[in-house]
Amino acid sequence: MQTTFPRLLQKHAAERPQEPAIREKEYGIWQTHSWADLSRLVEHIACGLHQAGLQRGEHLVVVGSNRPRLYATMLAAQSLGAVPIPLYQDAAAPECVFPINNAEVRFCLVEDQEQVDKMLEVRDQCPQLSHIFYDDPRGLRNYTDPGLGALDELIAGGRVFAGNHPDFWRGEVEQARPDDVAAMFFTSGTTGKPKGVVHTHDTLINRAEAGQEFDRLGAHEEVLAYLPPAWIGQNIFSYAQWLVCGYVVNCPESASTVAIDLREVGPTYYFAPPRVFEGLLTSVMIRMEDAGWLKRRMFHACMAVARRHGPARMDGRAIGLLASLQYALGNLLVYGPLRNTLGLSRVRVAYTAGEAIGPDLFTFYRSIGVNLKQLYGSTETAVFVCLQPDHEVKADTVGIPCKGVEIRVADNGEILVRSPGLLKEYYKNPEATAEVLSPEGWYHTSDAGFLDASGHLKIIDRVKDVGRIKGGANDGAMFAPKYVENKLKFFPHIKEAVALGDGRDRVCVMLNIDFDAVGNWAERRNLPYAGYTDLAQKPEVYQLMLECVEKVNADLATDALLAGSQISRFLVLHKELDADDGELTRTNKVRRGFIGEKYAVLVDALYDGRSEQYIETQVKFEDGRTGSVSATLKLSDARTFAPVKTAA
């Protein structure tokens, strides 16, 4: 379909004007905007932006949560031929400077006072930033900064202009072409400065259509938009596919109400990174540990049935009469109520992406009747590269190439992709563009993997991260840090892990405990603690972590390729890894190199065989203040296992 996002909006508004397009929860009540309402709002914002001086080809920054008027502003910018750039709403002010200056941004729309304060803070470094519009006026009554204005005022002016020039907006929309730039997304900057990934209407719409066709998506779907709009995964599911399919997008009231809103909406099409699914499962396990013995016994008995028969049933395979009756009873007593509690009772298709998901975690959801599948893609590929077909779902692969995609494996194991959804370029960075896009149109993903016998893609790790053990009993063995980290993070008591070992004689890891899960575990054992740092260093917690590490080692011992990646030593960090401290990206990916340098004293202590190490670390609080956290950390050895030879 050769079209643009504003034309798709016009199409829905013309064909089904009173159908719901987007909902927003305000003060506990869902407010619905029809396609006709949304079309008028976009027209008025576009006219207002035109009057303010936004030009075709210019960039407009949008910062905030998922809100109907922020989505409408992106559509309005695209209507005028301008390019919206969503930025992460939780980014610190200095993180906004590079994208704003790189894209020479004059206009920005922000959600509320917090975001206004960020923009005003960076104005000295971004002198061209002349117009700042805000959606929520609370707390901004006495702000008198030049160029600062309410979105309501912009809309009011645009409404008058539209009344005097009724054909203006449609004329602007008609000028756009499918190969015009539609949006720009900045990468998370794991290894350096962020890069602006430029996508056209055609690349984004093409991939949205591929996903629509693959899973037979239609206008009847319900979606909950709760992840950052600056992440292309959320943008594809709640913006590009929303406009292609015409389904309903629901915007939660706030981050703290997402779980409640999820249950109220009951989405049919759901997307979340593994961390969200891990959090949901952790909350379930905490609740079950607090339940009475009869409920716990019933839960575990039913889950044993689900593990044995649930995945096969979900894949459409026959499981026999007795197993079917047992599963039906489990569904009545446990699985159905559990899906309802999680807000997943109506889910027809659920996807996870962004990081590898632990196979046990993945199997848990499929066991209880949630059609959870994996996909593979990136910002540069407009997300959809590989998808898992129904009845062909494997825990250790990311699916088959979807429509229009070609995959090739380079000699060094790197996955190369050719697709209609590839980026146009990295903005103002031809060198970086040339590095990832070959003259023949192949995109270098930097991921290492292979296609199995059935054509499913299996990802091992990032090419640059796959290393080798040097020295010791495992000299020359392959080391895949992310693979090890993901195995550790399956345990509900482990929130984050950083594995080290490339070029060293053994593997060591630094762990973050899940404060809620371990705190609940400690309370049930009458183990007192005074905050995260104190709890993390308790001997009992170290014993709990040791059991998790040794279970991972036993599992790795059965993997001929990665048996040498077993963990020899570990420690539990005194603070949680945080994006504000530079340790994670805004998409919560570990910045392993940065962490290795920041905690070099701990890395040296692990490899020197020390039993404890003092460290003091600077931290940044939510209000922008800085402080420090110090502790003497314990360092512990872990048992490793001889490789297990499997039958040929």
Question: Which helices and strands occur, and which strands form pairs?
Answer:
Blueprint: H1 5-15, E1 20-26, E2 29-34, H2 35-52, E3 59-63, H3 68-79, E4 83-87, H4 93-102, E5 107-110, H5 113-122, E6 131-134, E7 148-150, H6 151-164, H7 168-175, E8 181-186, E9 196-200, H8 201-215, E10 222-224, H9 232-245, E11 248-251, H10 258-265, E12 269-271, H11 274-289, H12 293-314, H13 321-342, E13 349-352, H14 359-367, E14 372-376, E15 386-387, E16 400-401, E17 406-409, E18 414-418, E19 425-426, H15 430-436, E20 443-451, E21 457-462, E22 467-468, E23 478-479, H16 481-489, E24 494-500, E25 507-513, H17 515-524, H18 532-536, H19 539-556, E26 567-572, H20 592-598, H21 600-608, E27 612-620, E28 626-637
Parallel strand pairs: 1-11, 3-4, 3-5, 5-6, 6-7, 10-11, 12-13, 13-14, 25-26
Antiparallel strand pairs: 1-2, 8-9, 9-19, 14-15, 15-16, 17-18, 18-20, 20-21, 22-23, 24-25, 26-28, 27-28
Helix pairs in contact: 1-2, 2-3, 2-6, 4-5, 8-9, 11-17, 12-13, 12-14
Task: Please characterize this protein's 3D structure.
It contains 21 helices and 28 strands. The protein is of the alpha/beta class. Among the domains are: 5-271, Rossmann fold (3-Layer(aba) Sandwich); 467-637, GMP Synthetase, Chain A, domain 3. The strands form seven sheets. Strands 4-3-5-6-7 form a five-stranded parallel beta sheet, sandwiched between helices. It has a five-stranded mixed beta sheet with strand order 12-13-14-15-16, sandwiched between helices. Strands 24-25-26-28-27 form a five-stranded mixed beta sheet, with helices on both faces. Helix 2 packs across helix 6 (151-164), helix 11 (274-289) runs parallel beside helix 17 and helix 12 (293-314) packs across helix 13. The two termini are 49 Å apart.
